[in-house]
Write a structure and sequence with these properties.
The protein contains 6 helices and 8 strands; from the N terminus they run E-E-H-E-H-E-E-H-E-H-E-H-E-H. With 171 residues, it is an alpha/beta fold. It has 2 domains: 79 residues, Threonyl-tRNA Synthetase, Chain A, domain 2 (2-Layer Sandwich); 80 residues, no CATH class. Strand 6, helix 4 and strand 7 form a beta-alpha-beta unit. It is globular.
């Protein structure tokens, strides 16, 4: 393997205690296809990671795709996933609620392009202000947009929804 084909991957978080990855892994592209992706095959959710060498990001992401996995970029981390995603999981959950409870109104909040799939399947999509708001809003133009970013934006959205249905006195 040539030096220019090396990719750097860091696991800032792990949820898999059976196979905890190192804090920082310097992996060649073939390595990502075997140990890290095989770990992902045992996982039910995702493997968050940070690309430390931006110049080689395209090669790393292509290797993940070649292995039959998906990747997405969230607010701070990239994620390797299998066949599941937020929209699929949410749709399955809502189907259960609707089956048992009848009509159900759904609300989704997101702040990055990896939230677009989820926001497309909810009744009320809300894009929380962030550095990637323009990208997210382009993917989900019907989304309401908060004025504030981060937790304050989530709070703004939830309070606005609650006020719309149950106005508080004194406001």
């Amino acid at each position: 393997m040539r030096q220019d084909q090396r990719a750097v991957l860091a696991h800032p978080v792990t949820h898999n205690v059976r196979h905890p990855p190192a804090t920082h892994l310097d992996m060649v592209l073939e390595d990502i296809a075997l140990p890290a992706v095989s770990i992902d095959r045992e996982r039910e959710f995702d493997e968050p990671f940070v690309i430390l060498d931006v110049e080689r990001a395209r090669d790393l992401l292509a290797a993940i795709t070649r292995e039959g996995k998906r990747w997405t970029r969230g607010g701070r981390f990239h994620h390797i996933t299998g066949a599941s995603d937020k929209a699929t999981a949410f749709s399955r959950l809502v189907a259960l609620y609707r089956r048992d409870l009848g009509p159900t109104r759904t609300i989704g909040l997101g702040d990055a392009p990896n939230d677009a799939g989820l926001l497309r399947v909810v009744d009320v999509p809300i894009a929380v202000a962030s550095s990637r708001l323009a990208q997210l809003h382009a993917l989900v133009p019907s989304a309401q947009v908060t004025k504030l970013p981060g937790p304050a934006g989530w709070n703004e959205a939830v309070l606005s929804l609650l006020d719309a249905h149950h106005p508080r006195s004194g406001r």
